[in-house]
Specification:
Layout (H helix, E strand, L loop, with lengths): L2 H32 L6 H26 L7 H19 L1 H24 L5 H20 L9 H8 L1 E2 L2 E2 H19 L1 H11 L1 H6 L4 H27 L10 H11 L11 H20 L4 H19 L12
Antiparallel strand pairs: 1-2
Helix pairs in contact: 1-12, 2-7, 2-10, 2-11, 2-12, 3-4, 3-5, 3-10, 4-5, 4-10, 6-10, 7-8, 8-10, 11-12
């Protein structure tokens, strides 16, 4: 990707994100007008807590989407990482459990990257297979039952607050800043955009395409595991069905935030804004008493409209050609 094309992609991303912010403000105004509970401190903190768990996964998803790939395994990865973290924590202590959970996410990211880079499988197929395998392993490991008995040192990561703000929100802020700097200020970030913009051109320019692609899936697996562990801590137990549908929310958040499924475009700030659109919809519709099955229809329609407004999906730019 040349400097001129990179600047064009960045300007395009800014325009998409402005549309995302407009949608976010419009939803906030709408729910404020029709639900007096929406702007209360307790509800806003609840919204931030719920959204932070989606946003963490969506940040990792953004890395893979920028390369022109996708990671459908993040929901199952979150469930498996949370289950293993809880199981190890109950037997050997909190910190071995947390380490085991994070390594689980990195391990699944490694498998995804290996299947895509060395196995030459399309990202959709590779991560779809990982999604099914990780979900099955979660059910085997938990035997279909919750894992409880977590101590305070574990649950603090999902159920406590610091200066009145839930700890997962602080974790999101810290990791989002780091991820943003990686994408905007490091060689890895530049190479991620280059690979997504045009893989063949990136290779000719000296970019190690396999290594960059591999890194994106390691990062995605790590973020999914982090979210799964904090969700387990929030629930005080590991639930075998955790994370079902989380991959769809993460993809939606990234696309709403301006990431292009064709690759080469995306950003952390926009992804977080997109995550808040997803979280705000669920929160606001619950406050309005909309049945859950109707919420799915409404969310789907709003997602389609929002993507059309922000231009998050565009025709692929023939990544191996011009």
């Amino acid at each position: 990707m040349t400097k001129a094309s990179l600047n064009w992609a960045q300007r395009t991303l800014v325009y998409r994100q402005l549309g995302t912010y407009g949608i976010l403000v419009a939803l906030a105004i709408w729910f404020t007008l029709f639900s007096p509970q929406f702007l209360t401190v307790n509800n806003l903190l609840t919204l931030a807590l719920q959204t932070s768990l989606i946003a963490l996964v969506a940040i990792g998803m953004t890395f893979t989407i920028i390369t022109g790939g996708i990671d459908l395994s993040v929901g199952s990865t979150a469930a498996l990482a949370g289950a293993i973290a809880a199981g190890i924590a109950v037997q050997f202590g909190t910190y071995p459990g947390l380490l085991a959970g994070m390594m689980t996410g990195i391990g699944i990211g490694f498998i995804n990257g290996a299947l895509i880079v060395w196995g030459r499988l399309p990202p959709f197929i590779a991560t779809l297979a990982s999604m099914a395998a990780a979900r099955g392993l979660t059910l085997v490991y938990t035997q279909g039952r919750p894992i409880a008995g977590l101590d305070r040192a574990f649950t603090v990561w999902g159920s406590d607050s610091l200066f009145g703000v839930p700890i997962p929100v602080w974790v999101l802020l810290c990791t989002a800043v780091i991820a943003h700097l990686v994408l905007r200020q490091t060689r890895l970030g530049l190479h991620l955009y280059a690979v997504g913009g045009n893989e063949e051109t990136a290779r000719l320019a000296g970019v190690n395409v396999p290594q960059v692609t591999f890194s994106a899936y390691l990062i995605s697996g790590w973020f999914a595991a982090l979210s799964g562990i904090m969700l387990t801590a929030r629930l005080w137990s590991a639930q075998p069905n955790t994370g079902i549908g989380l991959e769809l929310d993460a993809i939606a958040a990234a696309v709403l935030g301006g990431s292009s499924l064709a690759g080469g475009s995306g950003g952390i700030v926009g992804t977080i804004a997109g995550s808040f659109i997803i979280g705000m919809l669920a929160n606001g519709l619950n406050l309005l008493g909309v049945p859950s099955y109707n919420q799915q229809v409404i969310k789907g329609l709003i997602f389609i409209a929002a993507v059309m407004m922000t231009g998050g999906i565009e025709r692929p730019n023939r990544r191996r050609g011009a």
